[in-house]
């Protein structure tokens, strides 16, 4: 794996962060105006598989306890800016878009358990192939919270059949970064029609004998933004995560 | 143990609920006006040991998915009504005090793991002695959330020394109902001066060789109400819990 310190990655990464800052937790970002913060937090409480909350900022603050020297407005490789549920910009620095009433939620990311998978000998096809992890919108509706609703998004990793059980066990022990897979095997069980056409990220190529494993994904709040159209939100761009200073094994139970 | 169906207990219990509805989860209650709901939910997110959220109601609704036929306004044995942080009433029915803007939070209760402890042969001194579990305000401050702050409250159980490790392991597997103890042994490590003078509930009598074990407690939000003085809140009376329809082993991981 290419690696680097979290601080170095935060300052230099320009693409997806899978495989970077080996051994450190990564996080999804969604920042919303304060009058939507309760609904985001409740949505997360009601949907803990896709939305395990690691940290919540004070209104307007770009600081997080997950990396005290970081600035959430500029230390992710790429952002998405949403107005009324529409994607309006994808900047590499969100400082010009940030508002004093924004509350930012940092949500566990499955990239966090990839070091543990790699150590156990589970190949990471997207990392090996130099691609972003593929993500899919499922037909499973999340439990709504006030004005916020939408479908669950999943990330998919092809895993050799004889390593599926091990991958399940390793990830089950890390519920704060999505935990056990929500499904293994048939994509149609999640309403996913074509694995080669992900809704976010890049398609990856399976090896013979690979089985698709699906984990709940922290892009789910972005699907909720699209479905629910809050007036404003800033998120990370899928796969372009916030790299924290927290060791990944902190989230192992 | 005295037992009974959850519905029967909800309709008939008049005292503490430890030992009742064997095999079903019990929950702490705190209901606050809607403009305090975000801070309660954030306080819980930041303090998951004392405040593991099981369910949040819609504003004004006395209904919860934890027991669809229950009415949160009258199905607990005893309530506490708080104004500006002061206890103003302790009714057995809170219907007359309920407001349309209240959001109710149901928080995991350690009574939920008592069936598992009993099955493993761990004696429950408070149940055997016909008393409420003793609870203590500690010197550990919770992480604040906006206007909400206060110390952690713990429940205490005397456990025979040779069963302490087993009790720790059993409860560690149930994080949604407070999980592993926060301390075992010396009360002064938590700033607790006298185990015979609990801040809530009743003192219990140890047997020779018993060790005090302390678990984070869902009365913590009441300590936060006292410290932070929101204009209004309704909680359960300590030990007088909401008995849910959810099997306790649902919360075992």
From TrEMBL, chains A, B:
Protein name listed in UniProt: Putative hydro-lyase BN6_68740
Keyword Cell membrane: no
Lineage top rank: taxon: Bacteria
UniProt-listed Enzyme Commission number(s): 4.2.1.-
Coiled-coil intervals, chain numbering: none
Family per similarity comment: Belongs to the D-glutamate cyclase family.
UniProt keyword Iron, yes or no: no
Source organism of the structure: Saccharothrix espanaensis (strain ATCC 51144 / DSM 44229 / JCM 9112 / NBRC 15066 / NRRL 15764)
Enzyme class of the recorded protein, top EC level: lyase
Keywords: Lyase
NCBIfam families assigned to the protein according to its UniProt record, in alphabetical order: PRK05463.1
Any one Gene Ontology molecular-function term assigned to this protein's record: lyase activity
